[in-house]
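HUMAN: Quick job: go over this next protein and say how the chain folds.
***
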Amino acid sequence: MKGQCVCGETAFTVTLKDQNVHVCHCSICRRQTSGVIMTVDTVQGSLNFDKQKYLSVYSSSDWGERGFCNACGTNLFWRTKDHSYCNINVFSLEEAPEDLKLDMEIYIDNKPEFYSFSNRTKKMTEAEVVALFSSDQ
């Protein structure tokens, strides 16, 4: 699949692991997007940049980093620093699959009370997410 930032200066190809969309309610994602970020997991090693002159990577934790276009600011991916796990902004895909489904919300204990999704999803707390990724280190 092909994807890109808003301005088109950062473009990539990727293979999706499945059609499951995840929502993150952490404070960084909410601040970065003025809402939540919706992502889809990628097949390990399949994220390849065709245009990356404006690609920047931000170290957001001891174990994770975020990629974005520094020309337009589009958030593109989150991945572990060892690249064993990566997800992409589902809306950065040029043509999203039709069978996407919202299946999980993470950092659910960080979610403000003023919004909620009606979909039934798996929910993980901050401690559960941190344990999942920090145990790999």
